[in-house]
Amino acid sequence: MKLKKIVMAAVAAGLLVAIAGCKEKEPDHIRIAMVVKNLGNGFFDAAHNGANDAARELKNVEIIYTGPTTPSAEGQIEIINSLISQKVNAIVISANDPNALVPITKKAMGRGIKVISFDSGLAPEGRLMQLNPSNADLIGTKQVQMAADAIGGEGEIAILSASAQATNQNIWIGVMKKVLQQPEYSKMKLVATVYGDDQSDKSYREAIGLLRSNPHLKAIIAPTTVGINAASKAVVDEHLVGKVFVTGLGLPSEMAGHVKSGAVREFAIWNPIDLGYAATYAAYEFVQKRPTAHPGGSISAGRMGAIAIDANGEGAMAPPFTYDKSNVDKFAKIF
Ligand code: RAM
Questions:
Q1: pLDDT digits (tens, 9 = 90+) for 143-195
Q2: Running DSSP on this structure, what letter comes out for residue 248?
Q3: Which end of the chain is more exposed for a tag (fewer CB within 10 A), N or C?
Q4: Is the dihedral of CA 8, 14, 19, 25 positive or negative?
């Protein structure tokens, strides 16, 4: 009798284990890979810091920070292939191309990896969500306004961008071109758009090229933290401070000296630490299959609060902040 009871208890326990095994188990150690456009960019180093902050709060999250040495879709494809073999739980990517990466991120998603893009987006079919730093119209408009302020609303301007396929820069350039058609900017003329590939040396060479081949140039707008830094150096080296003004999106830590030299009056940016932090929370919510993590829902991003996901699967953070000589030093200590 006693033996029968033991056998029955053992069978019941076995059944319970089997049932538990059938139910999809939430991973207790979550590996989130942050794939950036390229390594060695201070903007992404700051985003990485934010990702680490989120991982510390979430406790069971490990961040794998990676990216190619130069910003190319090919380099990111290779990395994602390896992340698929490593069976990471999520990939958070700033994409070097909106479309070229879609087949590989689709493959990753097919293997159960949650893919979200942040900063520079993937086409909707290649990701579950895109986290934008801010609204694209605001970012584009702001940069034209800053250039207009610096040059009194009149004269030739040029754009020094990142890589030619970068999703985020191309969206902002599109907005800038539209804004420039408004009557208030009719005296500003966009004479060239060049690409420094988010490499300091190439951006510097492109900026020098712009300055030398456009003797009437009044402003360079660089919607990239690498480009704005390189363009400012070029203006100083060509002895054009006060004649040509640089503006765009920069990191206070990299731009403080250029604001002091006079090459830059104002520039803008959002907080890249918060962006990396929120992107990590977003990935976590998708891995945990939170019921609200879907287009039309929202993610809850720790200290950043709830971020709504629109019908296209996009979410946006705060408006860009403007920096000039009154505040750049204070923020230079942070990012
Ligand atoms: C560079 C990168 C990044 C962009 C910033 C403003 O660091 O191109 O994608 O968001 O500039």
A1: 999 999 999 999 999 999 999 999 999 999 999 999 999 999 999 999 999 99
A2: E
A3: N
A4: positive
For residue 278, give every residue at least 6 positions away whose Cβ sits within 8 Å of its Cβ, in sequence order, or none.
Answer: 50, 54, 118, 131, 299, 301, 302, 304, 307, 317
| Ligand 1 neighbour 168 (Cβ under 6 A) | yes
CA of 69 to the centre of ligand 1 (A): 15
Domain of residue 142, CATH code: 3.40.50.2300
Query: How does strand 314-316 pair with strand 129-132?
Result: parallel
207 and 90, same structural domain? no
- DSSP character string of 97-130: -TTTTHHHHHHHHHTT-EEEEESSPPPGGG-SEE
Q: Is the CB of 299 under 6 A from ligand 1?
A: no
Global pTM value: 0.92
- Dist. CA 230–CA 4, nearest whole Å: 80
Confidence of residue 17 (pLDDT cuts 50, 70, 90): very low
Residue 247, ligand 1, Cβ within 6 A: no
- pLDDT 10s digits, 323-333: 999 999 999 99
Split into its structural domains, the chain has a count of: 2
Whether the CB of 198 sits within 6 Å of ligand 1: yes
Among left, alpha and beta (phi > 0; psi -120 to 50; other), residue 283 is: alpha
280 within a domain of the structure (yes/no)? yes
Cα–Cα dist 320/55, whole Å: 25
| Short-list 150, 172, 175, 119, CA closest to 324 | 150
Residues 74 and 156 in one domain: no
